[in-house]
Specification:
Four copies of one chain form a homotetramer. With 261 residues, chain A is α+β, with helices and mostly antiparallel strands. The first copy, chain A, folds into two domains: 95 residues, Sandwich (Immunoglobulin-like), CATH 2.60.40.2250; 146 residues, C8orf32 fold (Roll), CATH 3.10.620. In chain A, helix 2 packs antiparallel against helix 4 and helix 3 packs across helix 4. The mean pLDDT of chain A is 96. The interface between C and D is large, with 36 and 35 residues.
Chain lengths: 261, 261, 261, 261
């Protein structure tokens, strides 16, 4: 599917502030960037980063005053197969080395605290794929999508108790439960077709049967409409904007549309 | 300095358990492994991992019943210069890409919660080196080394309130404060000469002036007596033993001695 | 039922320490103290407290060095009816004033965080008694009785995630869920017949249909074998021993036996 | 001083909701209510509560639709002496029985976690009054008054780390530190003269030298301008409005003025 994505961000900075922005479509194996443009206000040069393993990109710079960042791209996001129930779980010794960090607890995904719950609830199933689908079904049945109940500090533990949150919270809890089941899981930021209202989206992916599989724990956007930006341990790693000091977010406008065929 | 290190670990496993062990001296630029041997009980093969960027190693395998792991090495740990007060802080845009994760909050180091405290307490100082020394002095004055008050779940936030802990806790709080100051900081596991009682040691390192500098927030062991094992975001990444299910730790015996000159 | 209860506590104090001990059988409407004796080491006088509303007692004194406290009593604990499923829930405006605090969150029972979960899981039932029985069944099915996984700081929130704990933890989580359902619930300390191994026991009671009903969320001891000591918002209120500074608990020996008929 | 206080609250309720409102000036020994009026929308009767020990009042009722509550009073709040530095600390055995709960940790004041910090920081002083003044000075120096950084779930522990909050947060942290020093401390809700912008105010009081002393940890309003409403363990006990389910707060308008002399 070819999608045209656009992000317009406007921030106000009280002083010169270091920023790291992660908004560009990844040059990953599962999608192709057909065309793109990036402008970032300010007269400081951009340091452009590219990670070969994942194809993800970001830029770093320093901004002050009011600054706008605009990114546009046409991306062919290929075909994304849904996670099969029979996808096989790996022994730790079989995993690629760079999958191992995604078995560990992280800032918003304290999977070490959920071992007993995850074993109780999901371990009866034999295949990794079936376990992940059981986790997704559990989230769908037990957690409500509610805006305004969580904050930037909300962890999966809090969401597990509160039973409500937004895409970030569903993703954190889903990742946490998968890691508690010894299944590598990582957060993915994305542009998402048909997401309403349009915004950056947070989903996750699991490593089973020798590959990563994208899943959307909120069921708000079809996986085939996802344009991948970045992946990481949790929201801390994949924030679309990280700044060295507090600033004022004045506008975040996202659009995702079918490109002309 | 040439040091002879030895670790003997004995575990009891109720069922076949996947393990990841991080006990080998790193093949890092700042130390040389002169000789070593590793034996790990069990008939399953060991998968040996090596990370080129840091030189750190680990092995993965599956163990059952009672299993002993013994590692011995003679290591020349070179010369480790102490962190200068004048070590310069970097702009984000100047940092090597692989330093960036060490600016972010992690499971045991929720640096996002400490921004205001860190700014209040330490930001008056101009150089990064001076700030880190101020953090170390603050830890020394405000936190007691007390065994038994913390657990495997203890975060830097809890230690900040409790004002007591062991090496792991000092390290987590030190890392947290440095990251809150926008200084990259990561946890390091090590063999430590003169540590009493002998045990695996947790310290940390900060990235300033173009290099990583090791510091010991507990002041229990001289930095020149450190044999580095692994580094990571916090204790979750550098645990000497990670297992896929609960097991029974029966023995952890560590020794670190001067090798014959 | 007539029960002979005995508690022997031995503590070591480094300095003169203020203590509050809550170990005497309550002179409550639902039980009769037939005989009793109390000795508390030390030469300081005991201040004996009695609360008319609940009949509970405690004493306060100052202790130093090694001190033993011994309490013995024969108590007729009457007949304790089990909570009927049809016990009626009260409107707030119908409750006795002294029940109201037991609707509120407390140190170990953050019921404000569980509103959504409790409503989702238990609110379909019409009567208060049925709701409390549903809470007790839920605890029985979802939480394991495991010693050693919780500490004196463990809250109901942690237990809800960890799904394991001891009597104190079951009681805290049960209270929390009842309060989230707008049912007054309070912690009760007790001597418990047939509890193995013998120890102080923590259970709780709920206010429905115009009276308090004792329930044991662990199902470890029959409610008719309970000798009530004290009640309060949670374990902080009903601790058998509270001290003004750290001390060394050297012995806690409890026995509960049928008295000669 | 004679003060005219007025509160106007407007709420929207989706369904019949049980409410508890604590907005009436206390009939306490330290102030006199000269005249007052209370109207609460709705056709359900009000249950009016009065606590003899503290003089505090509240009412309970059931409300639905949009409902307004208006309270007006002229109160002579007498003379409130400032806490003397020499106010004497009591042994536990000397305290009135009803002071004891205010030594214990509560939902938002986990004083059990702060023992070591409080001892380290404040225990060098000999008198209770001096210790409380040191706590107040510490709060003034280390915590910023900032709206919007805390929520209804914020505990003193979070504020201690974040170093910012509003009156509720200052009060919780102040209470927590005092209890950690074995000084009884409780939260007080109040109308406060000269508070800008006008709102309900949260302060606290400590029991020293045989009486309770009001203190304002925010230093925003003079203690002599306080009209006391209620006291309790923390904000959970003294909320001006507690409801059995979520509702929509549409207006909270408070005024406090000098009455005609």
């Amino acid at each position: 599917m070819q999608l045209r994505v656009r992000a317009e961000l406007v921030y106000g900075f009280q002083a010169a502030t270091q920023v790291r922005a992660s908004i560009e479509a990844a040059l990953s194996a599962d999608q192709t960037v057909i065309s793109e443009s990036l402008t970032a206000g300010g007269d400081q040069p951009l340091v452009r980063d590219f990670d070969e393993a994942t194809g993800q990109r970001q830029f770093r710079t320093s901004l002050s005053g009011e600054a706008a960042i605009i990114y546009e791209a046409v991306v062919d996001n290929g075909e994304r197969a849904p996670l099969p129930h029979g996808a096989r779980e790996h022994l730790w010794s079989e995993l690629p080395l760079d999958c191992l960090p995604y078995l560990l607890p992280s800032r918003f995904c304290p999977s070490d605290k959920f071992m007993r719950f995850a074993q109780r609830e999901f371990s009866g199933l034999s295949d990794g794929g079936a376990k992940v689908h059981a986790v997704l079904d559990w989230l769908h049945e037990h957690v409500d999508y509610v805006a305004g109940v969580s904050t930037a500090e909300t962890t999966a533990e809090r969401t597990f108790v509160d039973r409500a949150g937004v895409c970030r919270d569903f993703t954190h809890l889903g990742i946490t439960l998968c890691r508690s089941l010894n299944i590598p899981a990582r957060a993915v930021s994305a542009y998402a077709w048909k997401l309403a209202p349009p915004d950056f989206h947070a989903i996750f992916e699991v490593y089973l049967g020798g590959q990563w599989w994208l899943v959307d724990p909120t069921r708000l956007s079809p996986v085939e409409g996802i344009v991948r930006i970045a992946c990481g341990r949790d929201a801390a790693d994949i924030a679309f904007m990280t700044t060295s000091q507090n600033c004022d977010c004045r506008k975040v406008a996202i659009s995702v549309e079918l490109a002309q065929p």
